[in-house]
Amino acid sequence: MALRAYFAGMDSRRPEQTLELLEPDFRFLIALPGKEVTGTSREDFAAYIAGRNPVDRTHEILRHSRDGDLETVYGVVTEGGGYTGSFHSAAVLSPGGLIARYQAFFTVSFQLIDWAGDRSRV
């Protein structure tokens, strides 16, 4: 599943390795509280990665599915082991298995699926 590899790369000490999973004309939308980040290329995504704050962040996938070329995941984000928010992401894969399109929504105010981890920050 491409999104599992994507999140593993983004959570690693070398998130730039995630770029290898993307098509050159990769398009994306990342909706965060109060702002959206968009781009139309792998280079735009590299700029997004370079601008992220380096923290002990983990994306814990609670649900995932695939239907043809569409993958979806739902999970929670933790920083330093504590709950930060939840996310719902989808990707369309190219015939070669790379991520061609990506859309993510992150919220700090709602959980679609309860998380069994540390809820001290919920």
From TrEMBL:
Ranges of residues in domain SnoaL-like: 4-101
InterPro entries named among the record's database cross-references: NTF2-like_dom_sf (IPR032710), SnoaL-like (IPR037401)
Protein name: Nuclear transport factor 2 family protein
